[in-house]
């Protein structure tokens, strides 16, 4: 099984590259942001709870995220593996994921981190906001908050995987195809 953590700040291109990785390696996409937006669209309690955090660009509490991920993993049968996109976003989530993987007798193959500098991220998110319909993509202060939250709370997750010898950084600026080629080289060594 191939279980990949695709890591990077908001706007790094995780969603775009996830689609390409899934098409080639037939993995199950587990994007916590997409799952929350689905709940929001369906008007579930979880969606309502997540909304107030997402609207402010803050992180949804760990126990809520972890419960949702556990549910998705335990209800997915017959897969080649998972691509985790936007998760884990805190060290507590990374630890919970390791426990969950252990319980299911599977493990994380590695983390691929997309590296993009802050100025480019902001431009990309604003550009996406014109068509994504996401309110958190259309407001400069929300974009700033998300990047700050990433630096404060999410970046330590990279160190967590680095300590396990599972961290690879890739340049996230270039053509979509070029970046995907670099990603494939990493995955093919997992
Ligand atoms: P982006 O990577 O562009 O910020 P996402 O779709 O991954 O977008 O996430 C959107 C929002 O959903 C986040 O700002 C946050 O409020 C919430 N969210 C998504 N994943 C997580 C997570 N793993 N932990 C906590 N909150 C999350």
How would you portray this structure in words?
It is a single chain. The chain is α/β, with parallel strands linked by helices and 190 residues long. The protein is 59% helix and 12% strand. The protein has one domain (2-187): P-loop containing nucleotide triphosphate hydrolases (Rossmann fold), CATH 3.40.50.300. A five-stranded parallel β-sheet has the order 2-3-1-4-5. Helix 2 crosses helix 3 (45-56). 32% of the residues are buried. The model has no long low-confidence stretch (mean pLDDT 97). Adenosine-5'-diphosphate is lined by residues 10-11, 32-33, 36, 53-54, 57-60, 65, 86-87, 89, 93, 136, 146.
Please give a handful of descriptors for the protein shown.
190 residues, alpha/beta, binds adenosine-5'-diphosphate, 5-stranded parallel sheet, globular, 12% strand
